């Protein structure tokens, strides 16, 4: 967790909150939504992100209590993760007619870290597709690849897989927002009490949101 925040960042969050009311969101969901918007200056992510509080709380514990390894699909994602080191094997990977370099990097990383890792994918849809096919048992998958080919489809597949995940519905995404989502979990203190058990609900609208709370 961070104790010092630059004044420019403080002002950025203040302005964000004057344009979008995130106060009804549970703490970790709010942290993820706000940091993704802060990193992209795109308020529409409040309508686009899909995550739930219990999944985020479990991932937070994995990161802070179990020191779960972090894997990034590309070096730009790894560079954006500022509080912990992240493994990225894309430099060692090779493409074949049946496998992209990004997908091979995921295979190589899994051979090294095994189950229980936090995976941060912000570039290649094929990396996310490969991770879904592995029996990786992740603590969390932050699946925010970007592009017109395969990005939205791979994120839909991630949600359908049942893996613990943060994703978004549209084609947008990218290294900055993927790293931001992970940084939110690294920077934010875990609430001392678990949220009460309630059915999954859709939370606040700006004017519409797909950020979800599992509580």
Automatic annotation (TrEMBL):
| Key words of the record | Cobalamin biosynthesis, Isomerase
Q: Which Pfam families match?
A: CbiC
Entry-linked InterPro entries: Cbl_synth_CobH/CbiC, CobH/CbiC_sf
Stretches the record annotates as Disordered: 191-215
Q: Does the keyword Isomerase apply?
A: yes
Membrane-crossing ranges are: none
Q: In which pathway does it act?
A: Cofactor biosynthesis; adenosylcobalamin biosynthesis
Q: Where in this chain does the record put each Cobalamin biosynthesis precorrin-8X methylmutase CobH/CbiC domain?
A: 8-187
Ranges annotated as biased composition (Low complexity):
199-209
> Coiled-coil annotation: which residues?
none
* Family, as annotated: Belongs to the CobH/CbiC family.
Q: Any idea what this protein is called?
A: Precorrin-8X methylmutase
């Amino acid at each position: 967790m961070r104790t010092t925040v630059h004044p420019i960042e403080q002002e950025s969050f203040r302005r964000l909150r004057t344009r979008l009311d995130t106060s009804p969101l549970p703490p970790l969901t709010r942290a993820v939504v706000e940091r993704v918007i802060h990193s992209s200056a795109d308020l529409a992510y409040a309508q686009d992100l899909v995550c739930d509080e219990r999944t985020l709380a479990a991932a937070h514990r994995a990161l802070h209590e179990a020191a779960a390894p972090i894997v990034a699909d590309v070096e730009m994602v790894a560079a954006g993760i500022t509080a912990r080191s992240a493994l990225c094997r894309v430099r060692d990977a090779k493409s074949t007619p049946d496998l992209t370099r990004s997908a091979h990097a995921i295979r190589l990383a899994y051979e090294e870290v095994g189950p229980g890792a936090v995976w941060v994918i912000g570039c290649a849809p094929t990396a996310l597709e490969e991770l879904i096919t592995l029996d990786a048992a992740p603590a969390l998958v932050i699946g925010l690849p970007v592009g017109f080919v395969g990005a939205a489809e791979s994120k839909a597949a991630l949600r359908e897989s049942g893996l613990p995940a943060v994703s978004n519905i549209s084609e947008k995404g990218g290294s900055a927002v993927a790293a931001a989502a992970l940084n939110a979990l690294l920077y934010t203190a875990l609430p001392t009490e678990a949220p009460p058990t309630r059915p999954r609900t859709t939370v606040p609208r700006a004017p519409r949101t797909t950020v979800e709370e599992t509580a």
